[in-house]
Amino acid sequence: MSSQAQTRALVSRREKAPNTSMFARMLLRAAVLRRGRAASALLAMVIAAAVATAMMNLYVDVQAKLRREFRNYGANVVVVGSNGASLPEGALAQVESQLGGRGMAVPFGFIVARSEQGQSVVVAGTDFDRVRNLDRWWKTTGWPSAARQALVGVRASSVVSPEGKPFTLSFQGRKLPLTPAGTLLTGGSEDSRIYISLPEFIAWTGVQPSTIEVAVSGSTEEVNAMLQKLAKSLPGAEVRPVRQIMEGEARVLDKTRSTLLASAILISLTASLCVLATLIGWVFDRRRDFAIMKALGASEKLLNGFFAAEAAVLGLIGSILGFGIGIGMAAWIGRVNFHAPVIPRFGVLPWVMAGSIAVALLSAILPIGLLRRVQPAIILRGE
Amino acid sequence: MFLRMVYESFRRQKRRKLLAGIAVTLGVAVATAMIAVATDIGDKINRELRSYGANLLVTPQEDTLDVEIGGVNLKPPSDGTFLNEADLPKIRGTFWHHNIVGFSPMLPVNAAVGQGGVRDVTLLGTYFSKQLTFGKEHFVTGVTMTHPWWRVQGAWPGDESTDILLGERLAQQLGIKPGDEVQVAGRSLRVAGILSTGGSEDDQVVAPLALAQQISGKPGAVRRVYVSALTKPEDALARRDPKSMSPEMFDRWYCSPYVQSIAYQLQESIPHSHAEQIRQVAQNEGTVLARIKGLMLLVTLAALFAAALAVSAAMATAIFERRGEVGLMKALGAGNFAIAAFFFAEATLLAFLGGVTGFVAGALLAHQIGRSIFNAQITIQPVLFPVILAIAACVTFAGSAAAIHKAVRFDPVFALRGEA
């Protein structure tokens, strides 16, 4: 093959090549020709962006995750009849419709009955399926499943049915035979009570529920808004927040979020440091390119523009790849720690992108500032 | 010669050494702070979780049933058995007394309130913040510690006084403000403040324990004691029945601050008592604690990873810049081993200097985080220091290794001409 043919081939290839500007070509060639260093700079960028994304995502999402754990503490709102009276009929339906699926409501009715031995004991009527979901700390040996079955508190059981035998309760002369389905241990006042199903309770006593325990999910503001809504829709009842639960939750959540924020800032700073170190090395390494461009007559503006554009592109690509990986990391942490995936927050992306590009630009401008003062000849001589 | 080279390298290339040193210092500082916070967060969150109130309840062993609806006691006041108030300071003598944040005794009494005894309400006798002594130890305990969500408008009454707190709703119904006098069980008492709890106490009168004992005519009687203790999350061992354990296992169980073992110790120290965990509080705090600790552990791993990466990137860059030197050394006849040893010696020195400064900076950072977030000191285990130094050395080595390997392979001619 003659050299003429080679030249012709080259010329024809060049002719067909898209007419890209010199600037874009330089950017592209710089990335393609020095693959190793470019890749390591990109890798640092991707890792930093990934770590920052994961931390920000966790910070935003962890609140919702922890709130779910806190709902295991039970009701944060109670609805009671004014002055100890029963609630108006349909109050439960009202509460449920106001909640609209954003929480749980469990009705309770209370009376004092007498055992066969004449002991006073508190009997409560409730909905067992709901109570099981709301008060997860209740430790029972068995839940009532058939008619005339009761859940007996451990202390009540030693009085009314010591060996788990069937027993009879009387209220205003009406008797109700019951079989214990299991005992209940909570360590609280529930231990002294006997729980039966609400329809049986109403049929036996004729007393309507007097308390509805409500677990409202959501932030403090959402719970407060729900409190107002419930109070407005139930004028005959008192709607009270359970301060013990709400304040404890707010405190723990607040501290956790602050710690996480501090960690997120520290980690993002360290990650930026990593990018800074790598990119400064990368740009310094190319001082010969810089010198040649300068020797060939490139203006200061062009040079700055070139390195800045390079850094910006690197930051952009790095942040997009890193965002994807970071979302994956956050989801993994969510799965491992909370047994639920962390929802990707795309609102984080612009922040990560802006941060990445800013760090990349900073690490490009620093070495250029140093190199600008140096004569190209000195660099080209390798000094 | 070797030492002189290392020394001169540090003396003459101050800027480069400073950059690498800063990277190591910052990396170590972040790692130290994160590890310190992560190891201490369990304790800190545990304390915050105490804002949910008491997690243990001590009652008399032969207790009768509570007959109580919505906070109104329906049981005749003479009914039931009591604990002895004089036994309570012994709670400070239990094995895990350092973990007991506070306790408050309760004695509910039925009393008529208002002019001419218009209303029957429950009067609750308790400690507010009572000075007690056990052995030589003085301590303060009461509802201000075990029930931190109680709010008082006005002032808390003194434990030795005969002043009382009036529940919010009760005060509203009676039209009473702090400072007013009110008739309670035939006595005229001053209302020090209005109490708001969001619970049944809003309809009650809360008084110093001694006053409640006088009204009920039972000196020294206590109906139940709420204990707030720092506990370790429950595990398989915690749930076992202590009676079925082997002696060694029992010792291990007894010496772990499980809520069950603290309950067991409370029962031992207070005669004729039964201690039970309040499951609503005790059961959930384990889960919350485990979640937060797990989260911080994973976050700390991420921080360590980022710090290691930053340090190794800085080291690699620093060595890569010095190809010329490597070329010169090689041209003068230095072996690969000598060159590697030179760079590793430098890295060790950097890791050590950066490690020490970083550790101090990290400790300060952790201290600051503890102060601003938890309002408490974050303890830094001394054992962390050698661990951090070792990690710093490893990471610096690992970061340098690849770059040194590359530097050693350069052809000295190209390296010297600056074409590598």
Number of helical segments with 4 or more residues of chain B: 13
The rough form of chain B would be described as elongated
- What is the succession of H and E elements of chain B? HHEEEEEEEEHEEHEEEHEEHHHEHHHHH
Radius of gyration of chain B: 33 Å
Number of helices of chain A: 13
Low-confidence stretches of chain B: none
Strand fraction band of chain A? 15-25%
Overall pLDDT of chain B, averaged?
A: 85
Q: Which oligomerization state do the chains in this entry correspond to? A: heterodimer
Tally of DSSP β-strands of chain A: 10
The whole-number mean of residue pLDDT values of chain A reads: 84
The dominant shape of chain A is rod-shaped
Sheet-strand content of chain B, in percent, reads: 15-25%
Question: How much helix is in the residues of chain B?
Answer: 40-55%
Helix content, binned percent of chain A: 55-70%
Secondary structure elements and pairings:
The complex is a heterodimer of chains A (383) and B (420).
Chain A: H1 3-16, H2 22-33, H3 35-70, E1 77-81, H4 91-99, E2 103-114, E3 120-126, H5 128-134, E4 139-140, E5 149-153, H6 154-160, E6 167-171, E7 174-185, E8 193-197, H7 198-205, E9 211-216, H8 220-233, E10 237-241, H9 243-285, H10 287-295, H11 300-338, H12 348-372, H13 376-380
Parallel strand pairs in A: 3-8, 5-7
Antiparallel strand pairs in A: 1-9, 1-10, 2-3, 2-9, 4-7, 5-8, 6-7
Helix pairs in contact in A: 3-9, 3-11, 3-12, 4-8, 9-12, 11-12
Chain B: H1 2-12, H2 14-49, E1 56-60, E2 68-69, E3 72-73, E4 83-84, E5 100-113, E6 119-126, E7 130-134, E8 137-141, H3 143-146, E9 151-154, E10 164-167, H4 168-174, E11 181-184, E12 187-196, E13 205-208, H5 209-216, E14 221-222, E15 224-229, H6 236-239, H7 247-254, H8 259-269, E16 273-277, H9 279-320, H10 323-331, H11 336-374, H12 384-409, H13 412-417
Parallel strand pairs in B: 6-13, 10-12
Antiparallel strand pairs in B: 1-15, 1-16, 2-3, 4-14, 5-6, 5-15, 7-8, 9-12, 10-13, 11-12
Helix pairs in contact in B: 1-11, 2-9, 2-11, 2-12, 9-12, 11-12
